[in-house]
Amino acid sequence: MIRGLRRSHILLTLLLIFPLILGACGGKSPTAAPSKAHEGPLTVVASIGPLGDFARHVGGDRVQVHVLVPPGASPHTYEPTPAQLKLLNRADVLILNGVGLEFWAPKVLDTLDNPHLKVVVASEGLRVLQTSEGERGGNPHLWLDVINATHYVARIRDAFIAVDPAGKEVYLEKSADYIETLKDLDKEILFTVDRFANKKFIAFHPAWVYFARRYGLEQAAVVEHTPGKEPSPAEIAHIVETARRIGAKAIFAEPQFSPKAAQVIAEESGIHVLFLNPLGEPPDYDYVATMRHNLAELKKGMGE
């Protein structure tokens, strides 16, 4: 009889502590938010070079950054490779520009098996310009306005803190330092552009509208309104006429696209082809250095 009571007591004890054992081993209710313990740096994936560079400045040694779009490729047409999809399945943070630049994102995110992935859309909260009927939701090149870039940095900082609260002080300090660097760059661009003799320019595609709005320039014409769609003979003739009318010294192409159409226009107009780079050259991309390069090219083509 006593032995039977002992067995019943043991069984009751096991029933009481079994849920506690499950909790200690990581069991969670269906409504619990997924969590992940971090050992070593965060795995951060950025769609384009500028976002990757911002992430490195904010995260320092606490992050390992991978950029999806490789050197020379256009984000308007690029899609992640199978190897990059595997990377996304183990990543901690994915940084997107938004405004339709990552046209592949909705489909890819639906297929990932990574409930811990933090997705941050860096442009969220900024005013978006509409410049072409072919754009998905507006013009996505907001990072080319340096003040917009400070907004990107703040969004990335907040995402890192959410995923890695232990690194909060590091992220706050590094982002504040970098934002000050960007504000100094903004002043440098404003000072330089203010002295341009000509404030009108011809761009390869409408990447520079945010830059132009911020720094007092006017985009007088565009070679390709839709990336990859070359202009018609009538459009080329109109651009040549515009170049002559505004007294352009150069037409600004981009290294991610064939300069063929720009070269034809330049030859017809008797001007030069110079290159502006909205994306830089991953993986060693530096936003500040790239923007200074672009400023120097603009200065060559628009004079002082």
Provide structural commentary.
- 37% of the residues are buried.
- A four-stranded parallel sheet has the order 2-1-3-4, with helices on one face. A two-stranded parallel sheet has the order 5-6. The protein has a two-stranded parallel ribbon with strand order 7-8.
- It folds into two domains: 42-183, 3-Layer(aba) Sandwich (Rossmann fold), CATH 3.40.50; 189-302, Rossmann fold.
- It contains ten helices and eight strands.
- Helices cover 46% and strands 12% of the residues.
- The model is unreliable at 1-36 (pLDDT under 50).
- Helix 4 links the parallel strand 3 (93-96) and strand 4 (118-121).
- By secondary structure, it is α/β, with parallel strands linked by helices.
- It has helices spanning 2-24, 49-59, 82-88, 105-111, 146-163, 168-193, 209-215, 233-246, 260-269, 287-302; strands spanning 42-46, 63-67, 93-96, 118-121, 200-203, 218-222, 250-253, 272-275.
- The protein is globular and about 60 Å long.
